[in-house]
């Protein structure tokens, strides 16, 4: 099964929180408290995101992390690549970290690149802004405002 890591999922949460306070310096501790995520997890995420230049790390007194980019400019693909490396569904696609040991004999050789490209392009169309747009996102039925036909009452 193709599945994002929990760390990548949390990175979306952390970046979403930072984007709400764009251009404001925040610490790992503040983000941990605001998101409810453990401090070591937040610190690890911030390190990975800053290495890939999705955020900027500021050292010294008053230091922390800052997000200069608009949420509309950061894609899910950007976050995924910052956290997990190149998007590679199988070991035989271009850019995969691992090499397939039977690639020369495999009848699927090269075909997975097409699938990988489609998935990568789809991830590039979803932005951080889309992910944190709670007003227009899908809601669990329990969270939806109740809509009852006129004239009905609670039992």
Provide a short characterization of the protein structure.
The chain is mainly α.
What number is the mean pLDDT? 82
Work out the helix count. 6
What spatial form do the alpha-carbon principal axes imply? elongated
Order of helices and strands: HHHEEHHH
Unreliable runs: 137-145
Assess the beta-strand content as a share of residues: under 5%
Number of beta-strand segments? 2
Query: What proportion of the residues is helical, as a percent range?
Result: 40-55%
Strand arrangement, largest sheet?
Answer: 1-2
Give an account of the 3D structure.
- This protein is mainly α and 155 residues long.
- Helix content is 41%, strand content 4%.
- The chain has 6 helices and 2 strands.
- The chain has helices spanning 6-20, 28-35, 39-51, 76-84, 111-124, 128-131, and strands at residues 56-58, 64-66.
- It has a two-stranded antiparallel sheet with strand order 1-2.
- A hairpin with a 5-residue loop joins strand 1 (56-58) and strand 2 (64-66).
- The longest helix is centred in the first third of the chain and has 15 residues, at 6-20.
- The radius of gyration is 20 Å and the shape is elongated.
- Residues 137-145 have low confidence and may be disordered.
